[in-house]
Sequence to fold (328 residues):
Amino acid sequence: MILAIETSCDETAAAVVRDGREVLSNVVSSQVDLHAEFGGVVPEVASRAHLDLIVPVVRQALAEADVRPADLTAVAATHGPGLVGALLVGVSAAKALSVAWNLPYVGVNHMEGHLFATLLERPDLPLPAVVLLVSGGHTLLVEMREPGRYRLLGSTVDDAAGEAFDKVARYLGLGYPGGPLIDRLAVTGDRTAIRFPRGLLNEGLDFSFSGMKTAVVNYVRKHPDADNADLSAGFQEAVVDVLVTKALRAAESVGAASVCLGGGVAANSRLREVFAERITEAGLTALVPARSFCTDNAAMIAAAASWRLANDGPTPLDDGADPSLRLL
Ligand code: KG4
Ligand code: ZN
Fold:
């Protein structure tokens, strides 16, 4: 029974998970409104908000799970990658609780958490799996041969997919965070009205999104009256096409049995639809986890912690937070 804390960016989250898969509570307090007026996450604002929220969020996670400290096996926290001031709040809280309650502490890599979100949803996932991990900071294609055994197949050479959504939304004056706003607006637009270029579509497994963002800017300069809904739908269609094409190519290259989605951008409705359709058409198992397990949450951190604790043991208390911690 693991209590896990996630504070790597702008969500303060805590969860209780039994046996690495049974989610007893999964509390996420988003700071999105605090950062919206600045058009992006302000690290200092995030750290201060985590400080205010961490105790109530942990209390709520324990209450919703109906467990007491004596029922717990370990306390875990994301120890990187992320914003260092934000990470330190969760790491310090988890260590303090582990000392107070005499429990082991487990530091978890945030990206490994995103990978475990797939197993949390489907413990019998056919392996090897290819996971398309798309968030505000990362765009990765990862081969998961088994938990703990990963290989990087592709990544972005410039912007992350979520970053591209956010930048295009800002340019169009839609607001922050851009992904969900483009997603919503695209529903009312015509996705075939404007065809944007698909960066690196026919080459390898790496991604490039900055040219696609520039293409939107150039289009709007030439057509100042272009409809934001059509622009959103066309841009989203181009990003989704590239993401799914490369995920399929990666799956074929390693002979994967299943292909999974993860990360904040995996909440995108068009991506979920096209991903499931094309992966299934190719005769592979497509796993599209619930949105609450795709965006940042602590249940996925607890799932990864459970496996790490069983395989590597506890993390020493003098181990800190590492903003650029690598998984692969
Ligand atoms: O994984 P995440 O919650 O945080 C990290 O970056 O680790 O991902 C946040 C990113 C943001 O760029 C946001 O715009 C994007 O995920 N996002 C979406 C959607 N929901 C969130 N992008 C496209 N469509 C969405 N519905
Ligand atoms: Zn994340």
Observations:
- Residues 110, 114, 135, 263, 296 surround zinc ion (ligand 2) (CB under 6 Å).
